[in-house]
Amino acid sequence: MTVLILTGEEDVTADMVVVHLNASSVPVVRLDPADLTAGVALSGEYVHGSFRGHLSAGGRLVSVNGLRSVWVRRPGVPASRAAQSSAWLTEEASQALYGMLRGCAARWMNHPDAARRARHKPWQLRLAQRSGLPVPATLITTFPQAAREFAERFPDLVVKPVSGAHPQEPPRAVPTSRVAPDTDFGAVAYGPTLLQRRVAKRADIRLTVVGDTLLAARKATPADADPDEVDVRFATSDMPWLPTEVPPRVAAAVRTYLREAELVYGAFDFAEDADGTWWFLECNQSGQFGFIEVETGQPIARTIAEWLARPTPEDRDHVKGRRTVAP
Amino acid sequence: MTVLILTGEEDVTADMVVVHLNASSVPVVRLDPADLTAGVALSGEYVHGSFRGHLSAGGRLVSVNGLRSVWVRRPGVPASRAAQSSAWLTEEASQALYGMLRGCAARWMNHPDAARRARHKPWQLRLAQRSGLPVPATLITTFPQAAREFAERFPDLVVKPVSGAHPQEPPRAVPTSRVAPDTDFGAVAYGPTLLQRRVAKRADIRLTVVGDTLLAARKATPADADPDEVDVRFATSDMPWLPTEVPPRVAAAVRTYLREAELVYGAFDFAEDADGTWWFLECNQSGQFGFIEVETGQPIARTIAEWLARPTPEDRDHVKGRRTVAP
Question: Which residue on chain A is closest to B164 by alpha carbon?
Fold first, then answer.
């Protein structure tokens, strides 16, 4: 049973996981959907009530029914590197590849449907609330008056994009910014705006969850930090990321969140306040983990490799007289 | 409790359903996401562990928590009619609107995730097989050799797009076509190709399913029909669509299909062969039904209206001493 990794050619984070898979002799096929019809080929046959499918990449042929797991890392746009690429060919290639893979029994990290849903920030906030995670008061609105009233109730606010996307090309991350006290909010009418109570933080928390494993890292906020430096990704602090314990209540809530979200991988961002409360900011279902692993030494790549390599029920049937995993 | 209909302004099929909803005095809000920030506004507040959201369209304000059901008919691209439309604004507006709606308890026809998954034809074929529906032998491939071998085993083939999309602008439907006996299949290498055994049909079947209600229509194939006229949408036949009974085995399989697909509306296309077997061709989760209703008189619009209007558990709590729906 093979592990399928969907990602681009240059992906050192995927490389980190492949090293562990190779070390445990688990067969791996790595494939970029962008290479479909030029380097990557597929075939699936539906005859007499059953399905037989194959993928070919880099000269290797793998059976779709023989896939143990699929890791959707950073796949390219299907067929985008084909000789005659077009929106139509992309649609055809996407439907063919993912349509075939969706029908197989492999475990997904993460399933495309769950991944897509999980990107909706309003949905994240609601699920975090329901899972028992503290969520800073948040407003998403196109009503200037609603924004003004919210700013009266919560005078210390930050603003961030609803989608996380950047309005300019090439796309890059938009820093979360502090809202000036005299902001007018009239422009809110032209596009949904996300306003959130600023958490006066003493640390940033990155909690990486892989299956049942929780690995938390903490980056303390310097005592003399500029309160306008809201976004850890753009902060000038040279405090290190250090491993930290996950409070049991947070651990339980995070497990609930991921179960409801049908995700097996999630990178949670929290802001820790002066009372030690972890405030939910977001959960990125495809969040990077390389920088955390490098700084903290936490075995994230190995844990992902172990999850992907976990024996299937079929494998276990072949192991006589011995269970390799819990039922 | 309000019914929310997401669709464009000109949608006579939606009009047919609204007539029935109005007749039963169920509140309806109709909204095109394309009008976001220009005519349509939204606001959602996440404070103290709870959510309060509102949508405004055509001067009407509706509470998101007060939605009974959401009918995703033919919604426009979010914010595409805004004064300063852009891919970024579309992404922001889409995440804000659908992110909020995804968090509410309303019933969906159909849920966006289920709808998206259901468009994958390879996935449809596999699910149809598993649900016990007869599926004509099908191959989806980029291997010319696989296509050649398939054509040897099944000499009478049709070809259709994997995605149903058309390579040219403006998009239109691509007719399913018969494959000529001397086809070379070399071009298969440049794009996934769907080949399917042609069913020698004596009728086309359109089975429209709304919740638990199955409404089947049958259009007989004229005895002198040209066998190259494979696609009923493009056929010149003037045979009428007539209501027909659903064989019990098909009914059970179709219910299994929709339950597994998490769809509450589906328009199935079958080809009926000389033995009376219904061969599964596809299930369109947003298939048109107006033409069938007009020709057969089947009450599809009314059935949709009834499903959308069905009381929620909350409504039922307010009905004293009397149950309006089965538990």
Answer: A92
